[in-house]
Amino acid sequence: MFLQKLRLYNFKNHEEASLIFEGKINCFLGRNGSGKTNLLDAIYYLSFTKSAINPYDLQNINYGQAGFLIKGDFKVEDKQKEVVCSYQQGEKKVIREDEQEGSRFSEHVGKYPVVLIAPQDIELIWDGSELRRRFFDSLISQLDRFYLENLITYNHQLKQRNSLLRAFAEQGKVDSDLLETYDTKLAEAGEYIHKVRKELLISFVPKFNKHYDFLVQEAKEKVDIQYKSDLTGADFISLLRKNRQRDLLLQRTTSGIHRDDFLFTLNEQELKRVGSQGQQKSFLISLKLAEFQTIAEKKNLKPILLLDDIFDKLDDFRIHQLMMLVSQGTFGQMFITDARQGRSEQILKEAGLNARLFVLENRTFKEEWLEI
Ligand SMILES: Nc1ncnc2c1ncn2[C@@H]1O[C@H](COP(=O)(O)OP(=O)(O)OP(=O)(O)O)[C@@H](O)[C@H]1O
Ligand SMILES: [Mg+2]
């Protein structure tokens, strides 16, 4: 899959931009704050119909303007596809594919897969379980539309059930039959999500281990991801019944897949506590490369790889290993940002890779070829 053309109107700091991509490797270069990451974010937006950075679309509109538009021309298996995402202040966001409006979010996600490796990935290690669930949810949603639909149902039912628990507490009486109908719906969606998360990890972890070993080349370091769930060895409906009194008392649903976590470990200890910064970075990149491989295998389509400031995060050896993967043709099209043009040029030259360079300067793009 290739993105051949990207056009932006009033998306963040890009008032108007039109970029044509011919080669496999494209670099966005320029000073801090010039809008390199925003370009990656626009590509991400076309895939996920949302920003990777700012969930509030109002703030993604160029300051003082009324709306933004992102347009991408893709080539997918020899077919031309045009995707447009636009948002006007006060209106609903619109997603159009080949002039056809009204494509649903759950139907669109997964059609134009991208994998983003970015500095904020570190939050996956440091933040609470929600981000880790979101990482795996986003991966699985790209592979399984039914999963995303179940997730939406689950979150909706969970909210409803929690409101019901609060209402019962206020009224001082409980309608057990009504609660039971909510439990059934919640359990049905929850069981499916649990099953798919569990199955995914079985195939994901070996891929992840392989990437970590390749990047790091250090036999002493053993990394792992463990799936922790209330539903392990339990069936959800029984669990809801068992915890009903507690739920009524606390006025919220205290068990379920909304509490799942994925434990990241290094030599069987929590990565957050024992991993060095470099080890944590390698862990995250391996996680994303395993994501790339999983999507590529399941969809028979290489996702677009977005590498935001990747060279900043790695030592020379790891950069070398990563570039080996690039030159072996592991990836398809990729977009790389770097504030240091010389460094990127040198890395690419050393790896023997041609690239198209887009240098952002005073809101314009200077295009160059880096040819070996
Ligand atoms: N809605 C918006 N309207 C106008 N400008 C915006 C908007 N949102 C963000 N920006 C601007 O975009 C700039 C950040 O762009 P971006 O993160 O893409 O920079 P960058 O080139 O990746 O920089 P760095 O090298 O530091 O990572 C900031 O100057 C910010 O003020
Ligand atoms: Mg940036």
Number of domains in the coordinates? 2
Radius of gyration: 23 Å
Q: CATH fold name of the largest domain, please?
A: Rossmann fold
SSE class:
alpha/beta
CATH class categorisation of the largest domain: Alpha Beta
Largest sheet: 6 strands, antiparallel
Which strand order spans the largest sheet, edge to edge or round the barrel? 2-1-4-5-6-7
Shape: globular
> How far apart are the termini?
24 Å
CATH structural architecture of the largest domain = 3-Layer(aba) Sandwich
Q: List bound small molecules.
A: adenosine-5'-triphosphate, magnesium ion
How many strand elements?
15
CATH superfamily grouping of the largest domain: P-loop containing nucleotide triphosphate hydrolases
Q: What letter string, H or E per element, gives the SSE order?
A: EEEHEEEEHEHHHHEHHEEHHEHEHEE
Write the layout of secondary structure elements.
Elements: E1 2-11, E2 14-20, E3 25-30, H1 36-48, E4 67-76, E5 79-88, E6 94-97, E7 100-101, H2 105-108, E8 114-117, H3 123-126, H4 129-143, H5 145-171, H6 176-216, E9 223-228, H7 236-242, H8 244-250, E10 261-266, E11 269-270, H9 271-274, H10 277-299, E12 304-308, H11 316-327, E13 334-338, H12 341-350, E14 355-361, E15 364-370
Parallel strand pairs: 3-13, 3-14, 8-12, 12-13
Antiparallel strand pairs: 1-2, 1-4, 4-5, 5-6, 6-7, 9-10, 10-11, 14-15
Helix pairs in contact: 4-5, 5-6, 5-8, 6-7, 6-10
